[in-house]
Amino acid sequence: MTYKTLSPNKKIAMVAHDHRKDDLVNWALRNRDAFIGHELLATGTTGKLIEERLNLPVRKLLSGPLGGDQQIGALIAQGEIDVLIFFWDPMEAQPHDPDVKALLRIGIVWNIPMACDVATADFLISSPHMQGNYKVALTDYDEYKNRTF
């Protein structure tokens, strides 16, 4: 097992499907002060809405269906995302559903904290780990990477 220490200044990615954007923006607005000192990233429209409402800088990536979910997944795999807040819509089929599942999967693979609903996001943002160092256990994938066929 290997470890990565997250600094007090986390890189927080935020994603929301169309019918969940208001939920995410309202949640973020209620927790605005908790985001100060952290780096915020978000997919397209979600990032624009969060930046406008919170008046905090947000690194905006592509819209989810245009590759934004995959961009965030790549950043997770590169160790560039510490926390994922992803309010996905369980009641509506998404044209980029494979990307959605891949993003959730990669978050699990790299053991990053994730919240997919308001209650879990509340627990996550209020955790003392958000403001301090946190040692994350990473699965050692060397055997998987070095396998032969």
Automatic annotation (TrEMBL):
The active site is at 69 (proton donor/acceptor). Substrate binds at residues 17, 21, 43-46, 63-64, 96. InterPro entries: Methylgl_synth, Methylglyoxal_synth_AS, MGS-like_dom, MGS-like_dom_sf. Gene3D superfamilies: Methylglyoxal synthase-like domain (3.40.50.1380). It comes from the Bacteria. One of its GO terms (biological process) is methylglyoxal biosynthetic process. This is Methylglyoxal synthase. The keyword Signal does not apply. It comes from Pedobacter endophyticus. Residues 4-149 form the MGS-like domain. GO terms for cellular component: cytosol. One of its GO terms (molecular function) is methylglyoxal synthase activity. HAMAP family: Methylglyoxal_synth. It catalyses: dihydroxyacetone phosphate = methylglyoxal + phosphate. Belongs to the methylglyoxal synthase family.
